[in-house]
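Hi Y.,

Following your request, here is the sequence exactly as I used it, all 523 residues.
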Amino acid sequence: MAAVAKIPETTLWANRKCLLICAIVAIANMQYGLDSAAIGSLQAMPGFLEVFGYKDPSQPAGYAIDGTFQRLIGSLLTLGAFVSSLVAGAFAHFFGRKVALWLACVLNAVACIIQISTTDKVAVYIGRLVLGLANGFLVTFSNIYAEAAPAHLRAVMVALFSEWVNIGSIIGASVTNATKDRLDKASYQIPLGTLFIVPTFLALGLLFVPESPRYLLYKGRIESARQSLKKLRGNSLSPEGFELEWVEMMKGIEEEKHAAQTIGPLDMFKGTELRRTLLCYGIIATQTGAGSWFIISYSTYFMIVAGLSVNDAFKFSVMNTCLGFVGVNVGMYLMRHVMGRRTVLMTGAVAQGCAMLGMAVSATVAYGTVSARNCVIAFTALYQFSYNAFVGDATYPTATEMVSTRLRSWTVGSAISLGYFLAWLTGFCSPYFINPEDLNWGAKYAYIWAASNLCCLVFFYLCVPETKGRTLEEIDELFANRVAVRKFKTFKTTIVAEALKAVESSIPGSEKKLTATEHIDEA
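Below is the corresponding structure, written out as tokens. Let me know if you'd prefer a different format.
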């Protein structure tokens, strides 16, 4: 046991101001939930199919949708998000986080107008692409902004991403469920109209959100950075605790600037940054590897193919969305009080893999029966809960912690673009497997995702270090010292102690107030 300096761990209530600010920024992710629920449900809605599909008496809804159109409305959104996420690093370097989010709000509104006002497929394609460009910025910069959160609450505040996604999904599913029986254009225009919610509230909320203090420090705006940190922390810290965090932040950024004179995309693949970049990429890729895009994008359509009526499929879709919301809150509690990042991720890979395997096996041994259909419903529900409680909750907190402050917008942006590329690949290929006019695998497609979750489990166990409770500057030091995965949790860092010495010189007695006792490994 040894005494170590630590920034005080205050409660969520004490940090309510920072929590509110992060929640305002995280509302950007609600757009993804709204769109996924709307588009996934519209593909099974008679009113939408009457305009963009064709009559097919053999289908439960009486209409079918062209496979190419089905693939493009999903893949073009993903393509747009891929492009905007890829350029996020360059944009953030010059303009910052807030300007990027405001631009996304404008693009979002334009895309909604296009999609609502047209009956032309080409115009729909353009609207989906523009919406994708907006979504890429929304997802990337709302997650990057989590660097503003206190270290011990960072996972909870980044997990607000999943919270808002599920709130959006619940609203989207509820609205589409209410309009599904309409046969006019309003049946799909009303759900698409909900996509105006996010740009409206986010654009207004950003007026009260400070720019990231770490970004301001990197731009040399020291006083603005300090004021930003004060606004974020409010009264949650004592003067000594605030000074310790501020000095540590400044020291960490000074050391980064001293270690590397340039900030650019190629720096992500140099020295110790390569390990950090690959970890970030791998963690983001596991979102697709878990099978989430398949379930989220095609769950309603998939259940109809499995034999459910349109009404029942919509009801179960809403139920699964609500289960996902419950799962998010369970996961936030587990990350805050029970488990580390690694354990949450590994537990999720096992639970999700089992749900996928159960779905596939039931379709193999009892295909076309009521039992198989019920198994599809049950295992889809279990998957939605498990994914949102574990991998869905923990991937963004863990991935954004892996990378250095100076390269965060570059690395996280390119990692999210990789995630979108994999999602596009999934969205483009999935109809070939599940569509009756193609391979017609149905629920057997889940065998692929069961195996994929096993691969994710191996990756989490062998490669992902534990970063729970560490400040971003401590994590920088751990990677700089090339600490092994198994030693991350207990390795002794020095940056907080060095910051404490600086604080002690200006505020005598700080060392006694800010020192805790815990087990550490010597360097």
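Strands lie at 2-5, 54-55, 63-64, 515-518.

Thanks again,
Q.
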